[in-house]
Amino acid sequence: EAGVAQSPRYKIIEKRQSVAFWCNPISGHATLYWYQQILGQGPKLLIQFQNNGVVDDSQLPKDRFSAERLKGVDSTLKIQPAKLEDSAVYLCASSPGRAGGYNEQFFGPGTRLTVL
Amino acid sequence: DAKTTQPNSMESNEEEPVHLPCNHSTISGTDYIHWYRQLPSQGPEYVIHGLTSNVNNRMASLAIAEDRKSSTLILHRATLRDAAVYYCILARNDMRFGAGTRLTVKP
Fold first, then answer.
1. How far apart are CA A55 and CA B87, in angstroms?
2. In the list A5, A35, A64, A102, which could disulfide-bond A24, CB 3.0-4.6 Å?
3. Which of B31, B85, B97 is nearest residue A101 as measured by Cβ atoms?
4. pLDDT of A3-60, one tens digit each?
């Protein structure tokens, strides 16, 4: 079974530029998550989708971050414009079924973003 | 959100059992206890989860206290490949990661 795919794996941009990350979850997984992991910290949930609807985006900085999951499969996360403090690894995860504590999450390898 | 408390770091010898503790005194009845681990430069990897009863799988065992205010992840025979950051998480509708426990395995 193929795992969660993410691209690109690495990205270096200058502050105030825009960047987009792509995620392809495990086939059939209804729930998709985006996390931000700053060096030395645990992952922080940014947004959670159930199929193509947003379940929770309370921790997403909506002035600069946006995410979509068209057709309930692939998802993109965009930052526009980027700030230095956005330097982090952006992780995508998916889980089967409805969002809930009983489901395990499967993580992709992440995209490492460096903002100069 | 209910929080968990874990030691910052632990050390173990190779081929010995490892008990990783986690306190979650504010756990609610619908919170599942999840454990994930993260190897360097990789995304977190699911280890095990449970609600009330102890759980076993091929990777580890999860022992949950009767009052559910603490739990212990047990690796039965640590290998060098088990060196990672281990996260104990209370999950209801989503998961909120803490800083985790960095496990070092000595040969």
1. 23
2. A5
3. B31
4. 999 999 999 999 999 999 999 999 999 999 999 999 999 999 999 999 889 999 999 9
